[in-house]
Each structure stands twice: as C-alpha cells, then as structure tokens.
Design goal:
Blueprint lengths: L1 H28 L13 H16 L5 H22 L1
Helix pairs in contact: 1-3, 2-3
C-alpha cells in the first residue's frame, strides 16, 4: 500500500499545483485588457520542480518523481502566498 501511495502522490501533487496555478492565473487576468505584459508567475513551480528533482535524485528514498511533485506543490504554494501579499 505504501508503494502505491509513493507512486501516486507525485501525480496528485502536480495536479493540485496545476489547478491552483490555473485558478490563480485566471483570477489575475480576467479583468485585464489584451496588453502584452511579462508574467513570471510560473517561476515558483518551475523552481520547485528543479529543486525537488535534485533533492529526490540525491535521496534514494524520496525519488525524482516524488521530489518533483513535492517541489512543484511547495513552489506553487509559495508563489500563491507571494502574490496574495502584494
């Protein structure tokens, strides 16, 4: 059972991260005009994935998949909190 949870958890965390990112992105851009503006809102999840894969590869008990899922989830939450505080 624990192996199934370890296998499925990265996909669950990545799915939740994408859902949070999509809802937050839609809320920020629904009232904007079509002006081209640079948006760096995906940097938190991407940085989280990179760090998660590095940590997961170095630590065999976590693994790269679980590390990427946890990193993306943590990066999304941090990015979400940063944008809420602005």
């Amino acid at each position: 059972m624990s192996e199934f949870i370890k296998s499925a958890l990265p996909f669950v965390l990545i799915g939740i991260s994408i859902a949070i990112f999509a809802v937050d992105y839609h809320e920020k851009h629904k009232d904007r005009d079509s002006e081209a503006e640079t948006d760096f809102s995906a940097m938190g999840p991407l940085f989280g994935v990179a760090v998660g894969i590095a940590v997961g590869t170095a630590n065999e008990s976590i693994g790269a998949g679980l590390g990427a899922g946890i990193g993306m989830f943590a990066g999304t939450i941090i990015e979400f909190m940063i944008h809420k505080n602005r």
